[in-house]
Amino acid sequence: MKLLEEKIKKDGRVINDNVLKVDSFLNHQIDPQLMNEIGKEFASSFAAEGITKIVTIESSGIAPAVMAGLYMNVPVIFARKRKSITLTDDLLTASVHSFTKNETNELAIAGKYLNENDKVLIIDDFLANGEAALALVKMVKQANASVAGIGIVIEKSFQPGAHKLKEQGLRVESLARIASLSNGEVTFITEKMEELV
Ligand code: 5GP
């Protein structure tokens, strides 16, 4: 998505070879116009899938997920992060190790919001090692709902997440795909590079 790539080039900050900071439009301050375009793009990518619910993870997945939900006219559920979950009835749960914070969180979704008839689109801000997305997939499956696809705002394609998800037969659509963050520079995957893969 051209607009997103331009925004990343202009306002993203490369922290090191593995981490990109986008606090000025996605992870802290949020650019509503850009989120609107992102929501529209996800909605058109997954239009044919019969999506009934969107599932994301707090907090940075919420803005793009809500915009997609608006265009798809479906509810948006965000998995809540807890340091530990006291066992309560009817919770879908998984644990996830945060790539950026180096901590493990328990995730929970109330079981009443997902059922076996749901076709779920999972949305997240970043895809790195795939931990967060796989934890969401696990929770959707606990509800016997099906995962129709995974929508990612920024995929770091040099990390293994996208490959892991696709290996499981999951459809992954990423709006910006980063080939490298080396030398303090963001390099996107171009169509030419894709032909070579
Ligand atoms: P994964 O679970 O795929 O390893 O990492 C995805 C999660 O880690 C995302 O939900 C996101 O919050 C965070 N994350 C991973 N890489 C980056 C990054 O380069 N920048 C930022 N801001 N967050 C990241």
UniProtKB/TrEMBL annotation:
It is an enzyme of class 2 (transferase). It comes from Neobacillus driksii. Keywords: Cytoplasm, Glycosyltransferase, Purine salvage, Transferase. Its EC number is 2.4.2.22. SUPFAM superfamilies: PRTase-like. This is Xanthine phosphoribosyltransferase. InterPro entries: PRTase-like, PRTase_dom, Pur/Pyrimidine_PRTase, Xanthine_PRibTrfase. It comes from the Bacteria. Its main location: cytoplasm. The gene is xpt. Pathway: Purine metabolism; XMP biosynthesis via salvage pathway; XMP from xanthine: step 1/1. Xanthine binds at L20, N27, K156. It catalyses: XMP + diphosphate = xanthine + 5-phospho-alpha-D-ribose 1-diphosphate. Converts the preformed base xanthine, a product of nucleic acid breakdown, to xanthosine 5'-monophosphate (XMP), so it can be reused for RNA or DNA synthesis. It is found in: Cytoplasm. Gene3D superfamilies: 3.40.50.2020. Belongs to the purine/pyrimidine phosphoribosyltransferase family. Xpt subfamily. CDD domains: PRTases_typeI. Homodimer. GO terms for molecular function: xanthine phosphoribosyltransferase activity. 5-phospho-alpha-D-ribose 1-diphosphate binds at A128, N129, G130, E131, A132.
